[in-house]
Write a structure and sequence with these properties.
The structure is a homodimer. Chain A has about 425 residues and is α/β, with parallel strands linked by helices. Among the domains of chain A are: about 130 residues, FAD/NAD(P)-binding domain; about 150 residues, FAD/NAD(P)-binding domain (3-Layer(bba) Sandwich), CATH 3.50.50. The first copy, chain A, contains eleven helices and 25 strands. In chain A, β14 and β15 form a beta hairpin. The longest helix of chain A has 21 residues. The radius of gyration of chain A is 22 Å and the shape is globular. The interface between A and B is large, with 48 and 48 residues.
């Protein structure tokens, strides 16, 4: 890897997501040598992936080159690599670009889509956890519309135009809302020879309400917004199978959709070499100082870790603010070398949760303050704009949002690389 | 294809490039039914592809959805399709999505990279004629830098960092200039552990000057600019082979580069079914009314046609303005049904040629006015901004250019989909 051996302790961070980024920022120009490994050369702003998939934002405005972010940092080394194994006995990592020793190892690999072992769904459904998956989704939705023009079967045409989303968490709700807006404002003029009224946007949720992690009032409002936008919400339903545009639900009911988006679960990107005993629900069990159970110098932060606190006995939620705060806290822990006189156990400062459904429609639970509508939507936009990495990305996103808002448009409906289904 | 049969005559346009676009615009809401076929659902602004390849612009700002462009047009049908054969006896096209009859057929398929039969170069060199090829190029250049970090061989490292461009036409010169600026302003801080001074940007040209189609004074100025930027220009040289990062030149000299970009020739995207007798130098011979030699209702416009005029006895140059003007002229010809009282033979109104080398450095031949430097660069930017399709694209491009100018940056250095060499 050509990384110099120095007197400094080496911290290897796997993953340049929210957690890894905040840790590396916290350690910038400190007494550590920092090595960051990621399989992409950019940070992805995951909360806005759904806007890439629905032609509202270009992929390049929610991705930020990691090298640019750490420009000028002392003793910072980025390498494009995939990690194959942790050999903790030797304080060593095996990777796609060779081996590397560490003094401290931080796993911040996040999560990937969880199909819970259903191979058929894994093959036929789309996931949306990376920029290229979001681009594939954008392509497939548009390709299906182009295909719908060609068939003489009304049933097939309607299925090709229709989309089903499994899982009504924030991702599912935001996707459903954005697709409903495409249906309302964009697709009728793009496809004048299709009857867009027959397009269905269907949201399938196993529990009895949308946005299950949010307050009851947020769920209620979000459901109302989804209904207003024409989204067909199926609560208390789960998907058994999906082939040839047909979705079989556990209840026996059937739905049709040319595109099925799976937003119903995630699992941690676990690494080889860390035993099962340190894992719970596919994530690493960590103490309040981010150390993985059974290790002193291997830590996990962000979604890949499961940290239980008094307020969150089941584990902290998998949210960007948790990852950010954990990254910053771990930087402090490393700098004071876990000196308990100088370090308090990690406590999540809960700023609240928000989800947007469509223009002027969002819901927010900010502590005891629960509100919706235009106000929540504006707060949502403001917070997301400020959280984007980089001035360029913020300005381009702001411009796109303004443009889309005033023109009722989502301008980036390009099939740059057609999606080809894996065989 | 589900395109209704009407009383109107049907014009089938193959290709949504400059020529096809201007023809379709000219025929908007006329007495024809228009069917446009393209293998992409967007128009590509080819003159700026090199900025996508060099991380200066996002792909989405030089691509424009064709459906959006013809929103609200009467009797306009777009279909995503590849044409397989022209059956002119039956006035019929065979395509990837079925057959279609035409009254008039307009071939506006443009050109593709011409490797002149060298299979090895075709496999190992990169071309840059489409958005996805430009993205592949961006990925490969960045991937090679990541790889350069890993090798312990100095020779290999320098080869991986180095880039060679074959062909010093506008594309080659503009690419070389943009890469030299990446070398100067961006890569040193992105790769502090590489010695970027050892990166070579090499421009190989068979003739004895750069920009051979332009004036002698433009060639001279462009060469001076390229030298100032540190581009190594090899004139009177041609490439014989390229394997394992080694370029063998016809003179026997050798160069090294991890990326070889082939901008040394194009050939027409010819269709099956039109005989060789209508083809010259891989393009369709057309009369001054765009009709392909031997046909009355099959026309060719833009780069795919070769039209000879008194001022251009070898054929008009392959430039966007020619394509634009031909598209508009053919629309007129169709509307007056080739009534020679109302139609003059096509005449190219030559607005001049420009090429940009780098910031504040461009050359322009505008009629008798030949100039360079800051003024030419500003004119170049102004003309290209105005020529971009769509307000959104213009504004985002303008913002990117301003941002890049003031920050000496090219911010979009993302490897979103790694480039994998074909086997």
């Amino acid at each position: 890897m050509n990384i110099p051996e120095t007197d400094k302790k080496r911290v290897v961070i796997i993953g340049g997501g929210f957690a890894g980024l905040h840790l590396a920022k916290g350690l910038k120009n400190s007494d550590f040598q920092i090595v960051m490994l990621d399989k992409n050369n950019f940070h992805t702003f995951q909360p806005l992936l759904y806007q890439v998939a629905t032609a509202g934002l270009e992929p390049d405005s929610i991705a930020y080159p990691l090298r640019k972010l750490f420009k000028g940092s002392m003793d910072f080394y980025f390498r494009l690599a995939e990690v194959e194994e942790v050999v903790s006995g030797d304080n060593k990592l095996k990777t796609s670009i060779g081996e590397i020793l560490y003094d401290y190892l931080v796993i911040a690999t996040g999560t990937t889509t969880n199909f819970f072992g259903n191979k058929e769904l894994e093959k036929n459904a789309m996931s949306m956890k990376s920029v290229s998956e979001a681009l594939d989704l954008r392509s497939l939705i548009l390709q299906n519309f182009e295909k719908a023009l060609l068939t003489s079967s009304i049933e097939e045409r309607e299925a090709l135009m229709s989309i089903a989303i499994v899982g009504a968490g924030p991702t599912g709700v935001e996707l459903a809302g954005a697709l409903a807006e495409l249906k309302k404002h964009v697709l009728p003029s793009d496809y004048p020879d299709l009857n867009i009224d027959r397009m269905k946007v269907q949201l399938i949720e196993m529990s009895d309400r949308v946005l299950p992690p949010m307050s009851a009032s947020a769920s209620e409002k979000a459901l109302k917004y989804l209904n207003e936008l024409g989204v067909e919400v199926k609560l208390g339903e789960a998907v058994d199978s999906y082939t040839d545009n047909k979705i079989k639900l556990r209840s026996g009911n059937e739905l049709y959709a040319g595109t099925l988006i799976w937003a119903a679960g995630v699992k941690g990107n676990l690494l080889n070499g860390i035993p099962e005993s340190s894992v719970e629900r596919s994530r690493y069990i960590v103490d309040r100082y981010h150390r993985i159970s059974g290790y002193k110098n291997i830590m996990a932060i962000g979604d890949i870790g499961i940290m239980k606190t008094d307020n969150f006995p089941d584990g902290l939620p998998m949210l960007a603010p948790v990852a950010n705060q954990q990254g910053a806290h771990l930087a402090k822990a490393l700098k004071v070398n876990w000196d308990m006189n100088k370090l308090k156990p990690f406590e999540y400062f809960d700023k609240g949760v928000m989800a947007t459904v469509g223009r002027n429609r969002a819901v927010a639970d900010l502590g005891k303050l629960k509100f919706g509508g235009l106000m929540a939507w504006m707060v949502w936009m403001f917070v997301h704009l400020l959280s984007l990495v980089g001035f360029r990305n913020r300005l381009i996103t702001f411009f796109n949002w303004s443009y889309n808002y005033f023109n009722f448009d989502k301008g980036i409906r390009l099939i740059i690389r057609p999606y080809k289904k894996a065989e």
